[in-house]
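Task 17 of the worksheet. Students: predict the tertiary structure of the chain below and write it out as C-alpha coordinates. Keep your answer in the requested format; marks are given for formatting as well as content.
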Amino acid sequence: MKKKYPKRPRNTDYSAYLHPRWWPTWLGIGLMWLVAQLPIRLQWWLGRRAGLLALKVARRRRHITEVNIGLCFPELTEAQQASLVRKAFIANGIGLLELGIAWFRDSAKLTGITRIHGIEHFEKALEAGQGVLLLGGHYSTLDLGGSLVTEYIKADVMQRDHNNPLMNAVMTRARGRRYDAVLGARDLRGLFRSLKKNHAVWYATDQDYGRKDIVFAPFFGIAAGTITATSRIAERSGCKVVPFSHFRREDKPGYDIYFHQPLDHFPSGNDMEDATRINALIEREIRKAPDQYLWMHRRFKTRPDPDEPGFY
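Model answer:
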Protein backbone atom coordinates (compact mmCIF):
# COMPACT_ATOMS: atom_id res chain seq x y z
CA MET A 1 0.00 0.00 0.00
CA LYS A 2 1.31 3.44 -0.95
CA LYS A 3 2.26 5.49 2.07
CA LYS A 4 0.18 8.65 2.42
CA TYR A 5 1.64 11.92 3.60
CA PRO A 6 -0.35 14.88 4.94
CA LYS A 7 -1.12 17.55 2.36
CA ARG A 8 0.92 20.69 2.96
CA PRO A 9 2.27 23.61 0.98
CA ARG A 10 5.36 22.77 -1.06
CA ASN A 11 8.33 23.12 1.33
CA THR A 12 11.79 22.84 -0.21
CA ASP A 13 13.72 23.79 2.94
CA TYR A 14 15.74 20.71 3.89
CA SER A 15 15.74 21.77 7.55
CA ALA A 16 12.06 20.77 7.66
CA TYR A 17 13.05 17.13 7.09
CA LEU A 18 15.47 16.38 9.92
CA HIS A 19 13.10 14.23 11.97
CA PRO A 20 14.04 10.50 12.08
CA ARG A 21 10.93 9.58 10.10
CA TRP A 22 12.58 11.15 7.07
CA TRP A 23 15.82 9.17 7.47
CA PRO A 24 14.77 6.27 5.21
CA THR A 25 13.99 8.77 2.45
CA TRP A 26 17.34 10.49 3.01
CA LEU A 27 19.01 7.08 2.71
CA GLY A 28 17.33 6.50 -0.64
CA ILE A 29 18.33 9.96 -1.84
CA GLY A 30 21.92 9.32 -0.77
CA LEU A 31 21.91 6.06 -2.75
CA MET A 32 20.59 7.93 -5.80
CA TRP A 33 23.41 10.44 -5.44
CA LEU A 34 26.05 7.71 -5.22
CA VAL A 35 24.74 5.84 -8.27
CA ALA A 36 24.62 9.12 -10.21
CA GLN A 37 28.40 9.44 -9.84
CA LEU A 38 29.03 6.14 -11.65
CA PRO A 39 30.00 6.00 -15.35
CA ILE A 40 26.92 6.13 -17.55
CA ARG A 41 27.54 2.69 -19.07
CA LEU A 42 27.53 1.17 -15.57
CA GLN A 43 24.37 3.09 -14.69
CA TRP A 44 22.66 1.71 -17.77
CA TRP A 45 23.74 -1.82 -16.78
CA LEU A 46 22.34 -1.34 -13.29
CA GLY A 47 19.17 0.17 -14.75
CA ARG A 48 18.62 -2.92 -16.87
CA ARG A 49 18.97 -5.12 -13.80
CA ALA A 50 16.53 -2.89 -11.88
CA GLY A 51 14.03 -3.02 -14.73
CA LEU A 52 14.18 -6.81 -14.97
CA LEU A 53 13.73 -7.09 -11.21
CA ALA A 54 10.68 -4.82 -11.38
CA LEU A 55 9.30 -6.96 -14.21
CA LYS A 56 9.29 -9.92 -11.81
CA VAL A 57 8.08 -8.29 -8.60
CA ALA A 58 5.89 -5.34 -9.71
CA ARG A 59 3.00 -7.51 -10.85
CA ARG A 60 0.43 -4.73 -10.88
CA ARG A 61 2.58 -2.49 -13.09
CA ARG A 62 3.46 -5.42 -15.31
CA HIS A 63 -0.24 -6.17 -15.79
CA ILE A 64 -0.95 -2.53 -16.74
CA THR A 65 1.96 -2.55 -19.18
CA GLU A 66 0.82 -5.81 -20.75
CA VAL A 67 -2.72 -4.47 -21.20
CA ASN A 68 -1.52 -1.18 -22.71
CA ILE A 69 0.86 -2.82 -25.16
CA GLY A 70 -1.76 -5.40 -26.11
CA LEU A 71 -4.24 -2.60 -26.87
CA CYS A 72 -1.79 -0.35 -28.70
CA PHE A 73 0.11 -2.97 -30.71
CA PRO A 74 -2.46 -5.61 -31.69
CA GLU A 75 -0.46 -6.32 -34.85
CA LEU A 76 2.35 -7.85 -32.77
CA THR A 77 2.37 -11.53 -31.87
CA GLU A 78 2.11 -12.52 -28.20
CA ALA A 79 5.86 -13.19 -28.16
CA GLN A 80 6.60 -9.77 -29.66
CA GLN A 81 4.30 -8.06 -27.16
CA ALA A 82 6.00 -9.89 -24.29
CA SER A 83 9.39 -8.78 -25.64
CA LEU A 84 8.20 -5.16 -25.79
CA VAL A 85 6.92 -5.38 -22.19
CA ARG A 86 10.35 -6.62 -21.11
CA LYS A 87 12.14 -3.86 -23.02
CA ALA A 88 9.78 -1.26 -21.54
CA PHE A 89 10.68 -2.31 -18.00
CA ILE A 90 14.38 -2.20 -18.89
CA ALA A 91 14.04 1.28 -20.44
CA ASN A 92 12.15 2.60 -17.43
CA GLY A 93 14.64 0.98 -15.07
CA ILE A 94 17.41 2.91 -16.78
CA GLY A 95 15.22 6.01 -16.65
CA LEU A 96 14.83 5.60 -12.91
CA LEU A 97 18.59 5.69 -12.44
CA GLU A 98 18.85 8.64 -14.81
CA LEU A 99 16.86 10.64 -12.27
CA GLY A 100 20.06 10.82 -10.26
CA ILE A 101 21.97 12.26 -13.21
CA ALA A 102 19.24 14.85 -13.80
CA TRP A 103 19.05 15.84 -10.13
CA PHE A 104 22.64 15.59 -8.93
CA ARG A 105 25.03 15.93 -11.85
CA ASP A 106 25.91 18.66 -14.33
CA SER A 107 23.94 17.80 -17.47
CA ALA A 108 26.33 19.98 -19.50
CA LYS A 109 28.77 17.09 -19.33
CA LEU A 110 26.36 15.04 -21.45
CA THR A 111 26.04 17.53 -24.30
CA GLY A 112 28.88 15.75 -26.11
CA ILE A 113 26.68 12.66 -26.49
CA THR A 114 23.45 14.57 -27.14
CA ARG A 115 22.10 15.38 -30.60
CA ILE A 116 19.58 18.18 -31.14
CA HIS A 117 17.17 18.01 -34.05
CA GLY A 118 15.02 20.89 -35.32
CA ILE A 119 15.90 23.54 -32.74
CA GLU A 120 15.27 26.12 -35.47
CA HIS A 121 11.55 25.34 -35.16
CA PHE A 122 11.63 26.31 -31.49
CA GLU A 123 13.64 29.47 -32.15
CA LYS A 124 11.22 30.60 -34.85
CA ALA A 125 8.23 29.97 -32.58
CA LEU A 126 9.82 32.03 -29.81
CA GLU A 127 10.26 34.96 -32.21
CA ALA A 128 6.48 35.38 -32.27
CA GLY A 129 6.81 36.82 -28.76
CA GLN A 130 3.81 35.13 -27.11
CA GLY A 131 5.53 32.21 -25.46
CA VAL A 132 5.96 28.58 -26.44
CA LEU A 133 4.19 25.55 -25.03
CA LEU A 134 6.62 22.62 -25.35
CA LEU A 135 4.27 19.70 -25.92
CA GLY A 136 6.10 16.74 -24.40
CA GLY A 137 5.27 13.22 -23.33
CA HIS A 138 6.05 10.81 -20.51
CA TYR A 139 9.05 9.05 -22.00
CA SER A 140 11.49 7.08 -19.84
CA THR A 141 14.01 9.91 -20.27
CA LEU A 142 11.54 12.32 -18.66
CA ASP A 143 13.77 14.14 -16.15
CA LEU A 144 17.11 13.70 -17.87
CA GLY A 145 15.68 14.71 -21.24
CA GLY A 146 14.22 17.84 -19.68
CA SER A 147 17.51 18.59 -17.98
CA LEU A 148 19.39 18.21 -21.27
CA VAL A 149 16.90 20.48 -23.06
CA THR A 150 17.80 23.33 -20.70
CA GLU A 151 21.41 23.18 -21.93
CA TYR A 152 20.15 24.50 -25.27
CA ILE A 153 17.11 26.63 -24.44
CA LYS A 154 15.61 28.47 -21.47
CA ALA A 155 12.38 26.95 -20.23
CA ASP A 156 9.95 26.67 -17.34
CA VAL A 157 8.34 23.40 -16.31
CA MET A 158 4.98 22.28 -14.91
CA GLN A 159 5.17 19.35 -12.51
CA ARG A 160 2.90 17.13 -10.47
CA ASP A 161 4.31 17.20 -6.96
CA HIS A 162 5.68 13.97 -5.52
CA ASN A 163 3.59 12.31 -2.81
CA ASN A 164 6.61 12.20 -0.50
CA PRO A 165 7.29 15.83 0.58
CA LEU A 166 11.04 15.28 0.98
CA MET A 167 11.39 13.65 -2.44
CA ASN A 168 9.31 16.52 -3.78
CA ALA A 169 11.69 19.02 -2.18
CA VAL A 170 14.71 17.35 -3.78
CA MET A 171 12.97 17.12 -7.15
CA THR A 172 11.78 20.73 -7.08
CA ARG A 173 15.16 22.10 -6.03
CA ALA A 174 16.92 20.05 -8.71
CA ARG A 175 14.53 21.21 -11.40
CA GLY A 176 14.81 24.76 -10.09
CA ARG A 177 18.51 24.66 -10.96
CA ARG A 178 17.71 23.69 -14.54
CA TYR A 179 14.51 25.55 -15.33
CA ASP A 180 13.75 29.25 -14.94
CA ALA A 181 10.59 28.41 -12.97
CA VAL A 182 9.01 25.24 -11.54
CA LEU A 183 5.22 25.53 -11.63
CA GLY A 184 2.66 23.32 -9.96
CA ALA A 185 0.50 21.18 -12.23
CA ARG A 186 -2.55 23.33 -11.44
CA ASP A 187 -0.79 26.70 -11.47
CA LEU A 188 -2.45 28.08 -14.58
CA ARG A 189 -1.85 31.67 -13.47
CA GLY A 190 1.86 30.95 -13.27
CA LEU A 191 1.71 29.29 -16.67
CA PHE A 192 0.08 32.31 -18.30
CA ARG A 193 2.57 34.64 -16.59
CA SER A 194 5.43 32.61 -18.05
CA LEU A 195 3.93 32.66 -21.53
CA LYS A 196 3.30 36.40 -21.27
CA LYS A 197 7.03 36.82 -20.58
CA ASN A 198 7.68 34.90 -23.81
CA HIS A 199 9.02 31.89 -21.93
CA ALA A 200 8.90 28.29 -23.08
CA VAL A 201 6.98 25.96 -20.76
CA TRP A 202 7.34 22.15 -20.71
CA TYR A 203 3.83 20.69 -20.75
CA ALA A 204 2.52 17.12 -21.11
CA THR A 205 -1.04 15.98 -21.78
CA ASP A 206 -0.57 12.25 -22.33
CA GLN A 207 -1.97 10.86 -19.09
CA ASP A 208 -5.44 10.03 -17.82
CA TYR A 209 -6.50 12.88 -15.52
CA GLY A 210 -10.08 11.77 -14.98
CA ARG A 211 -13.36 12.79 -16.54
CA LYS A 212 -13.20 16.57 -16.11
CA ASP A 213 -12.63 18.82 -19.18
CA ILE A 214 -11.76 16.01 -21.56
CA VAL A 215 -12.77 14.54 -24.89
CA PHE A 216 -12.29 10.92 -25.90
CA ALA A 217 -9.83 11.12 -28.76
CA PRO A 218 -8.09 8.15 -30.42
CA PHE A 219 -4.67 7.17 -29.11
CA PHE A 220 -3.23 4.12 -30.86
CA GLY A 221 -6.80 3.56 -32.07
CA ILE A 222 -8.27 3.47 -28.55
CA ALA A 223 -10.62 6.17 -27.24
CA ALA A 224 -8.52 7.89 -24.56
CA GLY A 225 -9.62 10.62 -22.18
CA THR A 226 -7.62 13.64 -23.40
CA ILE A 227 -7.63 17.02 -21.69
CA THR A 228 -8.73 20.05 -23.70
CA ALA A 229 -6.58 22.47 -21.69
CA THR A 230 -3.95 22.68 -24.44
CA SER A 231 -6.45 24.33 -26.75
CA ARG A 232 -7.67 26.68 -24.02
CA ILE A 233 -4.11 27.74 -23.14
CA ALA A 234 -3.15 28.41 -26.75
CA GLU A 235 -6.41 30.25 -27.39
CA ARG A 236 -6.09 32.52 -24.38
CA SER A 237 -2.35 33.23 -24.58
CA GLY A 238 -1.72 33.15 -28.31
CA CYS A 239 1.35 30.99 -27.65
CA LYS A 240 2.91 28.65 -30.16
CA VAL A 241 2.67 24.92 -29.48
CA VAL A 242 5.88 23.06 -30.34
CA PRO A 243 5.90 19.26 -30.07
CA PHE A 244 9.16 17.85 -28.75
CA SER A 245 10.51 14.51 -27.56
CA HIS A 246 13.69 12.94 -26.21
CA PHE A 247 15.03 9.42 -26.43
CA ARG A 248 17.97 7.34 -25.30
CA ARG A 249 20.09 5.90 -28.11
CA GLU A 250 20.33 2.12 -28.06
CA ASP A 251 23.55 1.59 -29.99
CA LYS A 252 25.76 3.47 -27.51
CA PRO A 253 25.31 5.92 -24.61
CA GLY A 254 23.73 9.07 -25.96
CA TYR A 255 20.48 11.01 -26.36
CA ASP A 256 18.40 12.58 -29.12
CA ILE A 257 16.15 15.60 -28.60
CA TYR A 258 13.60 16.50 -31.28
CA PHE A 259 11.81 19.82 -31.80
CA HIS A 260 9.08 19.89 -34.43
CA GLN A 261 7.33 22.64 -36.33
CA PRO A 262 4.79 24.66 -34.32
CA LEU A 263 1.22 23.50 -34.78
CA ASP A 264 -0.41 25.64 -37.44
CA HIS A 265 -4.08 26.69 -37.21
CA PHE A 266 -4.13 25.70 -33.54
CA PRO A 267 -6.47 25.74 -31.77
CA SER A 268 -8.92 24.90 -34.51
CA GLY A 269 -12.05 25.67 -32.50
CA ASN A 270 -12.91 21.98 -32.34
CA ASP A 271 -11.67 20.27 -29.17
CA MET A 272 -11.96 16.77 -30.63
CA GLU A 273 -9.92 17.68 -33.69
CA ASP A 274 -7.25 19.33 -31.54
CA ALA A 275 -7.02 16.40 -29.12
CA THR A 276 -6.90 13.89 -31.97
CA ARG A 277 -4.09 15.85 -33.58
CA ILE A 278 -2.08 16.03 -30.35
CA ASN A 279 -2.52 12.32 -29.62
CA ALA A 280 -1.41 11.45 -33.16
CA LEU A 281 1.74 13.53 -32.72
CA ILE A 282 2.61 11.85 -29.43
CA GLU A 283 1.86 8.43 -30.92
CA ARG A 284 4.21 9.20 -33.83
CA GLU A 285 7.02 10.03 -31.41
CA ILE A 286 6.39 6.93 -29.27
CA ARG A 287 6.74 4.73 -32.35
CA LYS A 288 10.34 5.94 -32.73
CA ALA A 289 11.21 3.98 -29.57
CA PRO A 290 8.10 2.16 -28.28
CA ASP A 291 9.90 0.69 -25.28
CA GLN A 292 10.87 4.14 -23.98
CA TYR A 293 7.35 5.20 -23.07
CA LEU A 294 5.70 5.05 -19.63
CA TRP A 295 3.38 2.14 -20.38
CA MET A 296 3.00 1.51 -16.63
CA HIS A 297 0.41 4.32 -16.45
CA ARG A 298 -3.29 3.46 -16.84
CA ARG A 299 -3.71 5.62 -19.93
CA PHE A 300 -7.13 4.18 -20.77
CA LYS A 301 -8.55 4.13 -17.23
CA THR A 302 -11.43 6.57 -17.93
CA ARG A 303 -13.88 5.12 -20.43
CA PRO A 304 -16.47 6.97 -22.54
CA ASP A 305 -19.24 4.98 -20.89
CA PRO A 306 -18.82 4.98 -17.07
CA ASP A 307 -20.60 1.62 -16.97
CA GLU A 308 -18.20 0.05 -19.46
CA PRO A 309 -15.88 -2.57 -17.94
CA GLY A 310 -12.38 -1.21 -17.48
CA PHE A 311 -9.31 -2.56 -19.26
CA TYR A 312 -7.30 -3.02 -16.09
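Marker's comment: The beta strands are 114-117, 132-136, 156-159, 182-184, 200-204, 214-219, 222-227, 240-248, 255-259. Residues 14-292 form one domain.
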